[in-house]
């Protein structure tokens, strides 16, 4: 395919390539800050330049090139700060401490894998503070000043930058798209071109509504002609994430709030008028001529702690029972809509079955793909505290309101929006989306790979389609660099243990300061390699070869560091730096 004319892909590729180009000088400067001579620092930069995988990834419009460059920048700032540790509170010390915080904010904003760089700096900070805590020569007020400086520079500044990137994101991406439907309604109404702001204001008998669950990914209350394979075997009620005619329900007010304790007149014809808090309604599914029905006699198909919710035909015997009646309970409405009536977008609802005394919920589970099409499970919670719950699974909002008897109004004037709420919702959705990227073990995917195979590059990854008419890009690294860095990193724990035993037995051939300088620099580089590699073994999400590239960068620098100290060990003492 081709990019649309308005997409400046040339600039986008140049932008990403610039991040790739910066890796070599950043590697050189980092090694210089770790007291490596010019020649060995240049060797590290050359190694980074010569790795095919690092080169290939910067040719694509992906987040990985900025992530790599900003990870390298964070490492360089940490190395600069490390060199200033003996000049606490000097101008250089403050400069590199603040820049370390800035780099952490940038790398975390590029991609969440950048949090591993935050973990590296955090581990080094804990080591430094613990070392000062054990030093009796450090006054208490100075020690507390160290804490305060690091809290501001390494927590407040990165968090502020991270939040600022989202603020800019919200300001720039201000046009509506279907992908924004998980965001708060107040946020959506502020987007240019959104289709939900102009709607009739009062939901009343005869209105058709589309009810959206507050559970991320559960979508809209939905029904279709397929039946449950077990339980009542009635028509399914599910959650569906896309706009569809099967999401529309006709609201029928059957009993006023003041008469809820009785059942007289509950099954009579619909009562005209607006729907209010405490009213009893029936929800008629327009496309299948059925009613929403709660059945406490059957368990939900997946979440057995809940009861089944189904749809029954309007002319069936079940449609004459109280199970198809629901009590409307408005929960925390928008202040400008808090008049006791149900309105689109701004009045979250809890729907309680009049007969079953259970609350309509989106369980968060998915139905079986073979009979439920993988759609969200909708059920009824009969737990004692369900009637007072305000969690997302219990709440629904009228996202779409159709009523030809009313004029549409601008609902945006009634809605409020909070940056902190929007920020929290978007980050939660990012977390859920990331965790949903799980491998399908029933299918073989040539692009996926296991972290265990990354060290020695067992499965290179193709980056594009593989037909005969396209240019092919294969992400395959330089074997000498991948294998050499893997061996160096895997052997280091044994090497470090040997040196520490020698140090404890007072048979260490190093000078004290010389050994400390070596082990601290090695720990920073090896720690970066470990923290960017080991977490992937604990992740349930799908993994690819390019996830290893930040760890590879640390590994290449660590291998160069080891080569330098191994050669300098046999060199005359006068040539050591």
Short description:
The chain has 15 helices and 16 strands. With 577 residues, the chain is α+β, with helices and mostly antiparallel strands. Helix 4 runs antiparallel to helix 5 and helix 13 runs antiparallel to helix 15.
Kindly provide the radius of gyration, computed on alpha-carbon positions and rounded to a whole number of angstroms. Answer: 31 Å
Number of strands: 16
How is the biggest beta sheet arranged? 12 strands, antiparallel
Q: Percent of residues in helical segments?
A: 40-55%
Distance between the ends: 55 Å
Count, helices: 15
What are the segments in which pLDDT stays under 50 over at least 5 consecutive residues? 262-266, 573-577
How much strand?
Answer: 15-25%
Q: What overall form do the CA principal axes indicate?
A: elongated
What would you note in describing this structure?
- This protein is of the alpha+beta class.
- 41% of the residues lie in helices and 16% in strands.
- It contains 15 helices and 16 strands.
- The chain has helices spanning 9-33, 38-49, 52-57, 64-83, 91-110, 115-134, 140-172, 185-189, 369-372, 419-435, 451-454, 479-504, 512-531, 535-538, 549-570, and strands spanning 198-200, 208-213, 220-227, 235-240, 248-255, 280-285, 290-299, 307-313, 326-330, 349-353, 359-366, 376-381, 396-402, 408-410, 461-462, 474-475.
- The strands form three sheets. Strands 2, 3, 4, 5, 6, 7, 8, 9, 10, 11, 12 and 13 form a twelve-stranded antiparallel β-sheet that branches. A two-stranded antiparallel ribbon has the order 1-14.
- Strand 6 (280-285) and strand 7 form a beta hairpin.
- Helix 1 packs parallel to helix 4, helix 4 (64-83) packs antiparallel against helix 5 and helix 4 packs parallel to helix 15.
- The longest helix has 33 residues, at 140-172.
- It starts with 8 loop residues before the first helix and ends in a 7-residue tail after the last helix.
- Mean pLDDT is 90; it is low at 262-266 and 573-577.
